[in-house]
Amino acid sequence: MAVTRRPPTKAELRRQQMSAAVNYPLDWLEERSGLVGGIRYFLFRKVPADTNWMQTLGSASLTAFIVQAVTGVILAMYYHPSPNDAYNSIQNITDHVTMGWLVRGMHKWGASVFIILMFLHMGRVFLFGAYKYPRELNWIIGVLLLLMGMLEGFTGYLLPWDQTAYWATVVGINLNGTAPFVGPWLAQWLRSGQEIGPDTLSRFYSLHMLVIPGAIIALITLHLYLVVRLGVTSPPWSKEAAGTLPDPEPRPPRRGLTHEPATGSGGKD
Ligand code: HEM
To answer: Of the residues 135, 227, 230, which should be mutated to test ligand 1's pocket, given the most ligand atoms within 8 Å of the CB?
Structure first.
């Protein structure tokens, strides 16, 4: 007997139109790049069932970095990287630019938060033994990220160009200068000459604004790629530590967000 379907109601029709309007740009992008499926895979991939709060410290470090990047871009719109103007431009940001005090405060304190979170994340990785095979490379990338994070703090400290900034940089550069063999060369390079002066400020500004953030973004991309590729480690007390039990259900093949799910198999639709 032929099944007669009732015509869709007005509300159903509107929902269909809405969903087509939302899906069209996503479909367009997915067909040409596969990006939507990739993001969906990244966000909804499987992690061990007993993953816990300590495993959110990596994402917390990422969030802190994003806050630094956004507040840094806003500060850069008002900061003048020259010895005559740097100090005044920072005073202007704090006292006159709308919410400037807040953005500057977030950037200044956020720098410490970023470093502390990276150390906590590193501690978690160490305690869980997550640095062992096959994640050694991700540990090495993490060490580079930590180094870059600290260099970002060091180069940013000079930018207000006040007494604290100047003398802290003198101490930092002198410390580097004591390193065996490369020390004197490194100190000279950081100072961009024999004395700390206008060229040092330009050098630190370029490192702080372009070189180090670029390196951090590239390293984070590589770091996250490896996290997704290798999967997240189970806690050491886990009964189902990764690799000890076979996957009971093999994963369904990867599907793009915009593809209609197959219907008619389970009768649950
Ligand atoms: C900008 C700094 C960093 C960001 C944004 C970041 C981000 C992340 C994220 C999101 C994860 C997956 C979730 C998690 O385990 O928390 C992860 C895992 C990992 N991170 Fe980091 N991380 C950073 C720095 C570091 C540092 C400093 C180290 C060590 C020196 C490190 C080593 C690792 C390792 C080995 C894993 C794999 C852990 C596992 O499989 O359980 N990361 N990272």
So the answer is: 227
